[in-house]
Design a protein that fits this description.
The chain is built from two helices and seven strands, in the order ββαββββαβ. It is mainly beta.
Length: about 140
């Protein structure tokens, strides 16, 4: 990735800045392991989310969250709203600089690169979880 107007190369940041980029967790869709995943459980992690990243190589689960914004983001994302039972309530794509409307039934959200939700087969009613690789779970990708 190059910085606009210069020949200086920039290092892409493809995982949350507060997280270990070498995650062993995977996003599971209807019990099928898919992409690397990170979980934001602390207030700082939930507030920071994907800010200061240049892309995302996987998924971010934000606990205790029913709405998101993309102010300060550099790229569009898919937002998957999950119920307390981890069932998909809604899926939307948000461009940078937007404030999303809250989903009252959502208890957490998953953020993915734009178009990834469809590619992974995430639709309303799907069950989406984050599981550690091991104990018989192997990633599909």
């Amino acid at each position: 990735m190059r910085e606009s107007g210069t020949m200086c190369a920039m290092t892409p940041v493809l995982s949350p800045v507060w997280a270990d980029p070498q995650t062993t967790a995977r996003l599971c869709v209807d019990s099928r392991a898919t992409v690397p995943a990170w979980v934001a459980t602390t207030r700082d992690a939930r507030n920071t989310g994907l800010l200061r990243t240049t892309g995302l190589d996987g998924a971010l689960l934000i606990e205790r969250c029913g709405s998101v914004h993309t102010i300060g983001m550099q790229y569009p994302i898919d937002v998957v709203f999950l119920s307390a039972e981890r069932r998909v309530v809604d899926v939307v794509t948000m461009r940078p600089g937007r404030i999303g409307r809250p989903r009252l039934r959502a208890r957490s959200v998953v953020e993915l690169p734009a178009a990834a939700a469809a590619r992974l087969g995430i639709v309303r009613g799907s069950v989406v979880t984050v599981e550690e690789v091991g104990a018989g779970l192997t990633p599909d990708s």
